[in-house]
Design goal:
Chain lengths: 186, 320
């Protein structure tokens, strides 16, 4: 209670007012309005992230719907306004971590043999998406967020609920794995 | 002093430029002297550059316009299809609550089971009824005649004669004579026994039928020439196969194919010829009974193909 009073007192300052504006709960008129707003703002991000991991447009669409439903349910709590993008990405990552083991891209033995035996290093780097999907799903999401979308490690940490040190180590291991797949077997 | 192990531990920070200036400088010096670490750093940079250039797939317009629509977008890349509504027509059924679906499916299965259980006795009854009908329509005379037809060569004439009893008599004895049998049975005394109306009734002949005449005589050789004469008088060509008859143990058999039109006249002529023969009678316990009719005839179905407008005639002159 005392903390709440202190927060209200801090609202008198200009910085606090700005923070308070960010802390306002999401305003939307009904479910459809919420979906439209999230879709317009983060639709491409959610869909591309899902498509990159699941490698299937129908499955990415289903993941997109699931993410929207999750966001709508959690938005009613009104506590994600400040880190809206991170909140959206985190919901997407959680959804993908659930779906990817079952519906993610799995390379067949023939594809693996073809990848390991056909290209030189330059050819393999052009086929990086195939090698990328031989990583585990967590590493895939990490590389996409960090290297494709260039999020900071702090943001990725918030999205994936992992400490920054662990993320750095995992990223280094993932890059090393790709390095070995592409160059060591070339 | 930086070594390869330390550099590997901090390679991503070095790549991102997140190290402090002294460390950055130290690692740069290490790279100048270590080819393998430099190569690895180059590889990492190529990989991150390739990841950055991966295309960003925009949200499909259909999904953007209606985000929660369950209409699936077109599949391009591989991966298992997750959408259960991809099959057209099942959308409403999938949407139906599970308890309604389960109930409906249960009722459907119960109905199918009941139908099967109810249909089995009916099918069995139907089968038994059809079997009984077939048994009722079974004609012993036809059966015997068909047996004759099946082995109709002259070598089997002895076999035919060994049966000794005319098919008409057998049919009458069984009391199972069909309409055809009714028509012909007892016609050996047609002029006396038949009503006047039936006497002029034309002989009805169907396709693929065999007309069998059995003439009992004590002089088959004499009758043979008479039968040949009758056939010639009726216009049967002399070169017709079987017109001369075949002598067999117990009698003579004519087996030939003639025109339908002369069948009735042949019947009358043979009946007239047979009427000259006396009835064979036997006295038993003081009662005189006819043991052998001089002339019987009947028709049966033939298993052979007979040309249209023709009929197969078998005349059997057997000696008593």
């Amino acid at each position: 209670m005392a903390t709440a009073k202190k927060d209200i007192a801090n609202l008198t300052t200009g910085v606090a007012r700005e923070a308070a504006a960010k802390l306002k709960p999401l305003t939307f008129k009904g479910k459809n309005d919420f979906y439209k707003r999230i879709t317009d703002t983060y639709g491409d991000l959610i869909f591309d992230l899902s498509q990159s991991v699941l490698w299937s447009r129908p499955n990415a669409q289903i993941a997109f719907r699931r993410v929207l439903k999750t966001l709508y349910r959690s938005s009613l709590l009104g506590r994600y306004a400040r880190y809206e993008k991170i909140w959206v990405i985190r919901a997407t990552v959680n959804c993908l971590m659930e779906m990817a083991p079952r519906y993610g891209r799995t390379l067949s033995s023939a594809e693996r043999m073809m990848l390991d035996g056909s290209f030189d290093a330059e050819g393999r780097i052009r086929q990086i998406d195939s090698y990328f999907h031989r990583l585990n799903h967590e590493d895939q999401i990490l590389l996409i967020l960090r290297d494709k979308y260039e999020l900071s490690f702090e943001d990725v940490s918030a999205c994936m609920n992992l400490p920054v040190g662990s993320l750095k180590l995992k990223r280094a291991q993932a890059l090393k794995a790709l390095d070995e797949m592409i160059w060591d077997h070339a | 002093m930086t070594d390869c192990f330390h550099f590997t531990q901090s390679i991503t920070d070095f790549m991102d430029g997140k190290l402090a200036a002294p460390e950055q400088k130290s690692y740069s010096n290490h790279l100048d002297s270590c080819a393998s670490c430099k190569e690895r750093l180059d590889h990492f940079k190529k990989i991150t550059a390739a990841l950055k250039t991966l295309p960003k797939i925009p949200l499909p317009a259909t999904v953007r316009s209606s985000p929660m629509s369950q209409q699936p977008v077109r599949a391009e890349a591989g991966g298992p299809r997750l959408d259960p509504n991809a099959k057209p027509g099942s959308k409403n059924w999938i949407k139906t609550p599970w308890y309604i679906r389960s109930g409906m499916e249960g009722i459907g299965i119960a109905i199918v089971v009941l139908l099967i259980v109810g249909a089995v006795p009916r099918l069995r009854t139907w089968y038994e009824t059809s079997l009984e009908k077939r048994l009722e329509s079974f004609n012993l005379a036809d059966f015997i005649s068909s047996q004759f037809d099946s082995d109709d060569s002259s070598a089997d004439a002895d076999h035919k004669m060994s049966r000794g009893k005319t098919a008409t008599a057998a049919a009458t004895a069984d009391g199972t004579a069909s309409e055809t049998q009714d028509e012909f049975s007892g016609e050996e005394d047609e002029e006396e026994a038949q009503p006047k109306g039936r006497k002029d009734r034309p002989l009805r002949l169907g396709n693929s039928e065999v007309l069998r005449f059995n003439v009992s005589t004590d002089q088959p050789l004499e009758f043979r020439s008479k039968v040949i004469q009758i056939l010639k008088d009726l216009g049967v060509p002399g070169e017709t196969q079987g017109i001369g008859g075949v002598q067999a143990p117990g009698g003579i058999q004519f087996d030939l194919v003639i025109n339908n039109s002369i069948a009735q006249q042949l019947q009358k002529q043979l009946q007239k010829l047979a009427s000259t023969m006396p009835k064979q009678t036997m006295s038993r316990n003081g009662v005189e009974t006819t043991t052998r009719e001089p002339f019987t005839w009947y028709k049966v179905r033939s298993r052979r193909n007979i040309p249209p407008g023709k009929i197969r005639v078998v005349i059997w002159l057997f000696q008593y």
